[in-house]
Design brief:
- The complex is a heterodimer.
- The radius of gyration of chain A is 19 Å and the shape is elongated.
- The relative contact order of chain A is 0.16.
- Chain A is mostly helical.
- Chain A contains seven helices and no strands.
- In chain A, helix 1 runs antiparallel to helix 5 and helix 3 packs antiparallel against helix 4.
- The radius of gyration of chain B is 29 Å and the shape is flat.
- In chain B, helix 1 runs antiparallel to helix 2.
- The chains are: A mainly alpha, B mainly alpha.
- Chains A and B meet through helix 1, helix 3 and helix 7 of A and helix 1, helix 2 and helix 3 of B.
Amino acid sequence: MDIPYNTQARPDTGLYNGKLGMWLFIASEIMLFGGLLSSYVFMRVGSAGWPEPGEVLSVPVAAFNTLVLISSSITMVMAWASLKLGNYRRFRTYLAATLVLGLLFLVVKSSEYADKINHGLVPATDNFFATYYVLTGLHYLHIVGGLVVMAYHLGPGSRMWRIEPVRFTNRIECTGLYWHFVDLVWIILFPSLYLI
Amino acid sequence: MNDQPTKHIEPPEPTETPETVRLEMRKTVLVHITVGIVLMILTLWLAALSQLDMSTAERAGIVLGVVFAQACFIGWILMHLSSERVALRRFIGLTIFFVAILFGLTAWAYQDVIHGSAYHNDAPVEETETAPEEH
């Protein structure tokens, strides 16, 4: 049985179903991170003893991680553009590069967590570290989820390219949308937690 | 005769020739790389800002402005909202409106504090003089 509207746009929405579903998911994610960020602001503004972020967190490390994620967003776009041009080999190269950059982000973030925990700075330390671990930890899990999907597209999922190339290209576009959103969340978290 | 079900592959839209797709993709990739570079420069500028000596309020103002610009670049260009359907843009705009309400409620909570409670013990302490008891 063929699933309708996974390559063609639905007449009523003007979008194929996968893209509409991804945007709905992103909307729910905006509410999730928005709620957490507003509670962070609530605690940040109301606390008299909030630590200076630059003194307890490493700004250069976080800035490096931001650059890594922005680079991965660019390689993701290149991967999608390669598929649109029918260049499958180049697509694999760019998607693998995105995967490696995502893994690099996780490695740097994990080492940052390990450093904090070794210094006894855990979620129970104070409100700052509680919100820091919740916000960055949730973002970390989103990165892991994105990498699992990319690994699937590089591995068993790539067979779809031979059977339904348009549908496969659409899947990569949806993956890219998700990845850009994860990048956007980090772009907001970085200054909120490390700079202000 | 082959009676195996054949997979239907969608043909490209009639207006999309390989040449137009190639030109369109070239333009898209160039725009995306430019946006990526701008985002990186803004990130480095933000990181440098943390080294400057300024008040938290001043820094917060600048940082929020830059973050808003970065978010617009990512949403509008990298996530292609600029070329999406108007209904989708309205739908995302409505979601952001509700997030703004969440932040508004946070601000409102600070306008409506319960003075004298365990969390906002900033009410002036009134000195109560007890009148001598009359006998």
